[in-house]
Amino acid sequence: MTITIKDVEHVANLARLELSAKEKEVFTGQLNAILKYAEKLNELDTTDVQPTSHVLPITNVMREDAKRPSWPVEQVMKNAPDEEDGQFRVPAVLE
Q: What top-level branch of life does the organism fall under (predicted)?
């Protein structure tokens, strides 16, 4: 697959970019070089390689979610600027 100047013009139009003729030629060459380099991956033998979503094995590093007692409401409400019926009272945000 190769990139043509027409392809570069199309992408530039989608991105709302105005490119000069020189820039179109430069980008066409650069994009074709990138594709040529990426095609080298097709030379690799991957028949015995298992498909993965990540290169490295990923494990959950968070602690187990365990039930534990919470602080007493009275102690928590000591720091509340305003309290009503054991809940924090805040200014209304909706009219």
A: Bacteria
